[in-house]
Amino acid sequence: MHKIAEAPPQAQNKRIIIAKIVVVALYGVGLIGLSLPEYRAFFLMLTPAQLLLTLVLLLGFHRGWSDAFPIFAAVAFWLGFGSELIGVHTGYIFGDYVYGPTLGPMLWEVPIIIGVNWFILVYLTGTVLQKVTDNDFYAALLGATAMIVIDYIMEPVAVALDMWYWKFEIIPPSNYFTWFGVAFLIHLIYRKGNFEKGNPLAAFILVAMILFFTFLNFTLEL
Asked: For residues 27 and 57, is the Cβ–Cβ distance under 8 A?
């Protein structure tokens, strides 16, 4: 395992404080901008950039830079992206849906950023819950359950903001079952990965994301 020299505690604490301020600004300004109809179109264009900046912040404070970590990141990306690819073109995984323009450039009718989103969500929930149990199977169950809750909060907002659309505007129950299944598999791989699973920003960003979508459920006309 490769060790990266850590900054002195005082300098590290300052970095964390600055990063948290950036997170608050990132999601706070985004929340306000998306809640105001006159500015919504502009902030919708920034959605992929928001996810990428979140990714950069997480990786900047990730502690377990072993050879296994980038392998896990790639697997999480492609399992998430691949499941969405099959879902969009067959309707057999999550249900009958298509992606809108909000999430940016697409590959085979699936936004490339969606693979990043899968990695971020698994990484956040996995890191926050990693000390709850030593059992990898139970930890994966908890992580996948947490992701179902997040998806449930996120779905109405995503549809309202043209991220994706469901056929007949109905979210099928299969979406949550298969979301759980894919999330469980990636979480299990995360648990088995031979790298340190610590990040001082993970819990803060996870809470920021949940609050972001929760408040949008009330501020948007759903």
From this structure: no
